[in-house]
């Protein structure tokens, strides 16, 4: 990619979040992530070019020096900061404007700094072979996978119902979505194939912004979100099955392809479960960890998966899996926001008295080895110092990043005759053990959305936590049981169909 020959016609709108907009190259497996800021600042950018460059460089440093160490290098693509011609950025902004969701247009793309983050396009992996069907890529935002057990919690419901399930009630009550998602992160992080299968099925039923499927780099399945609220239309499951069937036609499926949509969906989910459980990306066989580092229940009272099976059927996660690494990093939040807030106030008061200390305490970075060492070597007991408090705040910020990250699972169809030596380095092969020409996939697992959470956002997090819990206390117990609770026939479909070869 030659920066001095950039042409906006080589790029297309890919998506955007609250803080950045992403475009992808039409031929190269590359994306550019550009900053956004409020529309009212469109003629007066809120930061200089140097500040914009430092903001993006902080994202790269935090990913490569901190999160990579905690989550595993094999899962991380930190990218690099690039300086782009300003005319290219301006033309690109004009080109993509009409493709942006209307409710996102309260913010505009940064056209003044010319700074962007260049990353691999994980939805369109470069290992695709032209003669094969295009690769599939699944994006999952797993959210927080454990219940807090901190003594600082003021309401007991937080130790029984997970944050995601409570947050769903708050989002529906405030018009963010029309329907609740029945996905529960604790089911996905359980390590139980049946619970994981059930969790992914609920993500498919109600994806919201937690689940997307791409084919050949194009999004083929997601929630139809708009106007700041969820659409009345449900995602088109028939359309998804139309896209998936060619990847899973074998044996009886090939003959009865018009009637076995459920079997196709089950096969797809099992492939995804295997990739998440064997997500080491190649090499290394970690053991299964059945006990978590800390006390606390591994099931959520709001989950609709059979409760007795949740209590007695959890196998735990393999220690080299992507879910295990994410969960352990999330568990750096040992105090919950309620226990952390007094420590935040200690640091905040210290900075008011000694503002120059902000640099020494690395409140805004740099995110280097010293930052990582500070949070890893934090003592267990509070000695009353500001250094202890800031280390715990940094731990919480890192945990929040892990709670808000995305997992990308790329599935590339392989031919039956390919053996393990032909599977690309860093990939693993998923193959079922039916006798009639089983489908197989090379796959890769990556983690993205690893931006550092701002130090100054902690008061907002406390307020949001209080609002979510209060809303759930008002509405949660009053809602009827959903008919999607797992049944005996569904359990029969959860048997393992695929295994790594």
Question: Can you put this structure into words, describing what you see?
Answer:
With 501 residues, this protein is α+β, with helices and mostly antiparallel strands. Helices cover 36% and strands 16% of the residues. It has 16 helices and 17 strands. It has a 7-stranded antiparallel β-sheet, with helices on one face. The longest helix has 23 residues, at 49-71. Mean pLDDT is 83; it is low at 226-231, 281-295, 419-426, 432-438 and 480-501.
DSSP summary: helix tally: 16
Structural class: alpha+beta
Please tally the β strands and state the result: 17
Rg over CA atoms: 23 Å
Strand order of the largest sheet: 9-8-7-14-16-15-17
What is the average of the pLDDT values? 83
Q: Which residues form runs of ≥5 with pLDDT under 50?
A: 226-231, 281-295, 419-426, 432-438, 480-501
Approximate shape: globular
Fraction in beta strands: 15-25%
- Our measurement of the CA-to-CA distance between the termini, rounded to an integer number of angstroms, reads 36 Å
Helix content: 25-40%
- What kind of sheet is the major sheet? 7 strands, antiparallel
